[in-house]
């Protein structure tokens, strides 16, 4: 093979690989049809979701996991997830979020701050399935990736 051809093939291969790799961050490691998206402004739309707000607060410590269970009823097409650990002195800090839908279908994440396109000490993502998300108990694991020994507080809202 001529060197020029080899280079051209490598360029094409790289062009094909980059979008696939960039898109992988928000894809489910599952075989179902759930679409994961960044929430454009990262803000809760209270008018749209005021019935379904499920909020919980806690304190996360270095290398510890907090498990938060949320029940999602049937016929819900979209849930939005807002994890916020912003505003602590000495930051920015790093917290990760891994989500297990019901039904042993694998998991989403772990997601870090930048997974939603903004480095703001928040993770704001939506999960959608036009035929209905899995109903039952969703498990949200909050992980203290880089937080002070004294811990930092956070809030998790799951709205639908
Ligand atoms: Ca973020």
Give a written overview of the molecule.
By secondary structure, the protein is α+β, with helices and mostly antiparallel strands. 16% of the residues lie in helices and 39% in strands. The protein has two helices and nine strands; from the N terminus they run H-E-H-E-E-E-E-E-E-E-E. The protein has helices at 3-24, 46-49, and strands spanning 35-38, 54-60, 65-72, 78-84, 94-100, 108-111, 122-128, 136-146, 152-159. The strands form two sheets. It has a five-stranded antiparallel sheet, with no helix packed on it. A hairpin with a 7-residue loop joins strand 5 (94-100) and strand 6. Mean pLDDT is 82; it is low at 18-25. Bound molecules: calcium ion (CA). Calcium ion binds at residues 113, 116, 118-120, 122-123.
CATH architecture: Sandwich
Number of helices, counting only DSSP H or I runs of 4 residues or more = 2
Give the biggest sheet.
Answer: 5 strands, antiparallel
The N- and C-terminal alpha carbons lie at a distance of 56 Å
pLDDT under 50 segments (min length 5)? 18-25
**Broad CATH class:** Mainly Beta
Descriptors:
single chain; binds calcium ion; 160 residues; alpha+beta; 5-stranded antiparallel β-sheet; 4-stranded antiparallel β-sheet; Jelly Rolls
């Amino acid at each position: 093979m001529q060197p020029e051809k080899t280079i051209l093939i490598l360029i094409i291969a790289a062009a094909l690989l980059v979008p696939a790799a960039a898109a992988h961050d928000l894809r489910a490691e599952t075989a179902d049809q759930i679409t994961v998206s960044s929430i454009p402004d990262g803000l809760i739309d209270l008018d749209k979701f005021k019935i379904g707000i499920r909020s919980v607060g806690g304190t996360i410590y270095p290398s510890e996991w907090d498990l938060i269970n949320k029940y999602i009823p049937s016929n819900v097409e979209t849930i939005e997830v807002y994890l916020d650990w912003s505003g602590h002195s000495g930051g920015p800090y790093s917290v990760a979020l891994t989500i297990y839908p019901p039904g042993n279908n694998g998991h989403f994440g772990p997601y870090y701050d930048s997974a939603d396109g903004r480095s703001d000490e928040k993770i704001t993502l939506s999960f959608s399935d036009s035929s209905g998300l899995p109903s039952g108990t969703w498990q949200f694991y909050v992980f203290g990736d880089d937080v002070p020994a004294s811990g930092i507080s956070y809030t998790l809202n799951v709205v639908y």
